[in-house]
Amino acid sequence: MADKLCWLGHAFFEIETSAGQNILIDPFWEDNPAAGSRPDHGDIILITHDHFDHCDNLAEFLAADGIIVGQPEVLNKIRAGSGESLQEENFVLAGSGMNIGGTVNVKDVDITMVQAFHSSDAGSPAGYIIQTPEGKTFYHAGDTGIFGGMDVLGDIYDIDIAMLPIGSVFTMDPKQAAHAVKLLQPETAVPMHYGTFEVLVQSADEFCRLVARKMQDVEVMAIEPGETIEC
């Protein structure tokens, strides 16, 4: 069996591992105009930063024994706003959180938090390297502009699938995101954070064209919200 990746619109993804873990990244459902199919639950939920379009509806997606992964300040904010619905044991490392550069093993999935360049009300923005029991490596960049350290991530990790924002205004535009692919050198690039709102880039066409020109050996999969690919 293979791992599966489903884009749920905006920066919201679900990874279903062949070992049975369900990983959700940046849940944004109720007010997401580009929402795809609704996921059932998340055994692990990763939060890149605390903007509403990356952590809305979090509690309703969390499995009963689920774990939320994020920075200490972000987790404190989420817990404070959850009332009694979320407890210390629902957060990574008994509520302590993790930070950039660190790796934790959650339910047999290795999760490394890496830097991102954006803004956040609490803590600082981040991305994630996710290594599943199947041996696949996923990179979710979070909301970010391009940065030189992406080539270091590409050197350290053998990235199978990179999920990269291309929508401009708040993140990389297609030109920067295509160059990010060149730095990261993944096997497959999946564009995200576009088409959700009118102000964002509406199509992945330019990104696909630029990647094809810069990195012909990288496959771009511009999937639709709700579409699933095998990895």
| Strand tally | 13
Helix amount: 10-25%
The 3D shape can be described as: globular
- Measured by DSSP, the beta-strand proportion falls in 25-35%
Superfamily at the CATH H level? Ribonuclease Z/Hydroxyacylglutathione hydrolase-like
GO molecular function, one term: hydrolase activity
Protein name: UPF0173 metal-dependent hydrolase SAMN04488692_10848
Family: Belongs to the UPF0173 family.
Organism: Halarsenatibacter silvermanii
Structure notes:
A seven-stranded mixed beta sheet has the order 6-7-8-9-10-11-12, with helices on one face. It has a six-stranded mixed beta sheet with strand order 5-4-3-2-1-13. It is of the alpha/beta class. The chain has helices spanning 52-55, 58-61, 72-80, 150-156, 174-184, 205-214; strands at residues 4-7, 13-16, 22-25, 42-46, 62-69, 103-106, 109-115, 126-131, 137-140, 161-165, 188-192, 219-220, 228-230. The chain has one domain: Ribonuclease Z/Hydroxyacylglutathione hydrolase-like (Metallo-beta-lactamase, Chain A), CATH 3.60.15.10.
Distinctive features:
6 helices, alpha/beta, 26% strand, Metallo-beta-lactamase, Chain A, seven-stranded mixed beta sheet, six-stranded mixed beta sheet, 231 residues
What is this structure, in a nutshell?
The chain has 231 residues and is α/β, with parallel strands linked by helices. 19% of the residues lie in helices and 26% in strands. It has one domain: 4-Layer Sandwich (Metallo-beta-lactamase, Chain A).
